[in-house]
Amino acid sequence: KTSLALAYGCIVSMAENSLYINFEEYSGFSFFTDDSPSGDLSDLLYFYRQNPSNVAKKLTALSCTYHNLNYIPPMQFSYDIKNMESEDLNHFIHAISETEQYKNIILDISDSLKDVPALLSVCDKIFMPSTKDAISQLKIDEFFKSISALYNSSIKDKTEIIIPPYADPC
Prior knowledge:
The chain is α/β, with parallel strands linked by helices. It has eight helices and six strands, in the order αβααββααβαβααβ. Strand 2 (64-66) and strand 3 (69-72) form a beta hairpin. The protein is globular. The model has no long low-confidence stretch (mean pLDDT 85).
């Protein structure tokens, strides 16, 4: 999922300013970069809570670059993200969008967030990596069935299932 999000982000960032934000509890992001950032997503969230209207300044200060793609270094400790209400997270993403620094904001999310469907509902496009096996397909069907039952949303309509080619990591 992270590799897909980063690959997509790097491709779109060749044409338009793009920002990648990893909301996973354990990102594994150090695999991709050896930066020693001065701050991370926790710092940006803290700054946003203190001064929501001036998030652009801190966003610029904390953003790093991976190839052409700007990113906020993932948080070291997941406590901040696990306890953030979905409405606050949606406002946070909206505040970043309103800075108009980025044409694309790529969110790498996981179920460590309190209300994933609420966050997905603010997205224009959703890419969901999967495999072709029967269990994975059933999981996807169950996810969409649950979304439909609990939310009145267009999440399924905005979702594109991606079946990446198998690559042996060795």
